[in-house]
Amino acid sequence: MKELCIDASIAVKLVLKGESHRATARRLVKECLVNNITLISPHLFECEVDSVILRRVSQNRLRAIDAERALAGLGMIPVRTMAHPDLRARAREIALQFNLDAVYDATYAALAELRGCDFWTADKRFFEVVTPHCDFVKYLPNYPN
Q: Which residue among 51, 66, 100, 117 is least crowded, i.e. fewest CB within 10 A of its CB?
């Protein structure tokens, strides 16, 4: 079974209008579905996406009604959340290796590495930090046309 890991930054682009690279995120997910590639993420994915959306509401950057629509749309994204027995340890190793102040982004990378698949993110800062050491980490704006 082929898999591809995505993070919250990709999901947010899928469900919120006006996001940069939204069309690219939609194309990535659509091509995965067409090619029977399973989208995966660690369990923190759902909480992280919800937090991003609710933070925008609290900052008055998103109306509550639009947040409700976005949160409903998240349920339509076929992402399989999963764990791995070595996930936390590997995420901490990656975070330490790249001097990250949290393990959130490293957890996605660790899952992709442990599952042997690519990890797509729209988080430019994280991508630039881990490149070129983690060639399985991909940056959404670089997704082929």
A: 51
Q: Could you report the per-residue pLDDT of 15-66, keeping only the tens digit for each?
A: 999 999 999 999 999 999 999 999 999 999 999 999 999 999 999 999 999 9
**How many structural domains comprise the chain?**
1
Residue 39's H or E segment, with its range, is strand 38-42
Contact in structure between 81 and 41 (CB atoms under 8 Å): yes
Range of the domain at 38: 3-83+117-142
Contact 109, 100 (CB under 8 A): no
**What is the reported pLDDT for 97?**
97
* Residue 15: C-alpha distances to residues 52, 54, 92, 135 (Å): 12, 13, 30, 27
Within-domain flag for 97: no
pLDDT at 37: 98
pTM given for the model? 0.95
What the block records as the tokens of 32 is: 């995965």
